[in-house]
Amino acid sequence: MTNLKAIDTAALAARLRWVAYAAARKLGVPGLLAGGLVVALVGAHAFYLQPDGEHLEVERDARTTALAALPKPGQKAGDGGMTLAQVQQLRSSEQAYSIFQILSQRGMERKHATYRREVEVKGKLRRLTISIAMSGSYVGLREAMREIADQPMVRIEGVSIERDRIDSANVNADLRVSLLGPDT
């Protein structure tokens, strides 16, 4: 470190001016602007982005620790329903039977049903889509749809409701339901 005192700063400044002049002649104005942009980006990364990245990493570690301290969600079923593990053990036909049972408990008379089976998630899961034509009271249909929607791995894809007369409580409905789960 004693050699740093021996450096002639005036000569160094003159050499740097000469290098800047030679670069300006060789690169031109666009080259100097591009070089200045590169130097500015390196400076921004070193003084602004890198320290902020370290701050984000510290914050992420703190949040990970806070999340690990939270209690794990339970596997309990709510309101007489089934847990996800229990539903995954069911076959699609048993799930479909439970949907038909819910509809009949709510007073809906099934006219006919069509089925479509599709393979999803690289063959690990199967989707069974059931289109059900039925008739019954509007209140019974609403209650049945609420109960069906509360089941895990079941989704109501669409519903079409028709009435013969506007003041009639009875409706004709087409309900499309999808069941997702393993099918062995």
UniProtKB/TrEMBL annotation:
> Which of UniProt's keywords are assigned here?
Membrane, Transmembrane, Transmembrane helix
Positions of transmembrane segments: 27-48
The reply to whether Membrane figures as a keyword in the UniProt entry is yes
Which top-rank group of organisms is this from?
A: Bacteria
Q: What is this protein called?
A: Uncharacterized protein
What is the protein's species of origin? Burkholderia stagnalis
